[in-house]
Amino acid sequence: MRDAYHEELDALSDKLVEMTRLVRSAMARSVTALLDADLRLSEEVISADEQINKIDTEIEETVFDLMARQQPVAGDLRTVITTLRMSADLERMGDLAVHIAKTARRRHPETAVPPELQSTVLEMGQIAERMVAKAGSVIASKDVEMGLELDADDDAMDRLHRKLFDILLSPKWKHGVEPAIDITLAGRYFERFADHAVTVGEHVVYLVTGQRPQEIIENS
Amino acid sequence: MRDAYHEELDALSDKLVEMTRLVRSAMARSVTALLDADLRLSEEVISADEQINKIDTEIEETVFDLMARQQPVAGDLRTVITTLRMSADLERMGDLAVHIAKTARRRHPETAVPPELQSTVLEMGQIAERMVAKAGSVIASKDVEMGLELDADDDAMDRLHRKLFDILLSPKWKHGVEPAIDITLAGRYFERFADHAVTVGEHVVYLVTGQRPQEIIENS
């Protein structure tokens, strides 16, 4: 049977998983808003971010309370501190989805994404969505192998990010500077979103194995 | 007389201040590298980042060790957790200086900054430098008023950031898409750098007063 303390840790883990669900939904909607120039959807993402921030604050309060009452050491201490960090990563990922939604809102009723970039941006959004869903599964399952997969997903995101710049810098680019700025920023938001998902995976891998992902790869 | 525990906390604070010094120097050199297309300076910033990361890791290890041995509660607990967070902010600011240095390196021997943007970029760099220096003073002095000033500095940065876009989007812009992408990203790096400096200030304000800066402003 789990004691009260470990039940509290489980509850924290559930809250992190709930954050990944909200962030995944925010990312899905912000990408659709961006591609379809959908003002209503972008407004939804912007106002829903409050809920993500609220859970982040709740997690922080619970962690401080738990540390003060239980004074965890060693592994348990690392777990609660890591929970704080994953919560901060997920909160930031919510902000990045909001930035994408705001890009859509700023250009409405036009779309910020010219036709020749739609498929690449869609793919970046889908990878971002998969990465945060995977981060949620990794938090829930403590599956190290799945945690390590996030690195490969991030490589796929980086390739798409480079492709974005290739298209922007191609002599065929006819849309001028303003859409190029929007796409440059959106690309950066996707890239950072993926980086934070990788970091969440790394935190779980470290909690389970005591090793950083790089060490595991080097030793395998 | 300070006990051993509070001496350790002071030593952590000194390490944070040392990080602000290294980050300030990185920012100063990366901006010069960017404006002058100075390859040697940009390489310096890129390799010096290791030192910043090393201090971040040392702070993290000391904090975990200290929490395990001393089991701080209440205010002391908040101090050590906040130290971890400020260290993470400063580590990230070092990365952002590296991103600026890499922009300079990528365009070398050309400069990434066209003449009509040089003064704005210089000013953004100077504000960034002042903000991290101020963050260091705030950490050392626990001066709440100075901590709150960082918000106004950030407003100045935001104004310059908007000016950057005005120039990029002006009909007089003759440099096409590639420099616009570089400047868009550099602008984002400056903006995020300033955000992290504000966060460091907020952490100190909260540690000293128990209030978030917004609450202080609302109640004053």
From TrEMBL, chains A, B:
InterPro entries: PhoU (IPR028366), PhoU-like_sf (IPR038078), PhoU_dom (IPR026022). It comes from the Bacteria. The keyword Zinc does not apply. GO terms for biological process: intracellular phosphate ion homeostasis; negative regulation of phosphate metabolic process; phosphate ion transport. It is found in: Cytoplasm. Its main location: cytoplasm. Belongs to the PhoU family. Plays a role in the regulation of phosphate uptake. This is Phosphate-specific transport system accessory protein PhoU. It comes from Actinomadura namibiensis.
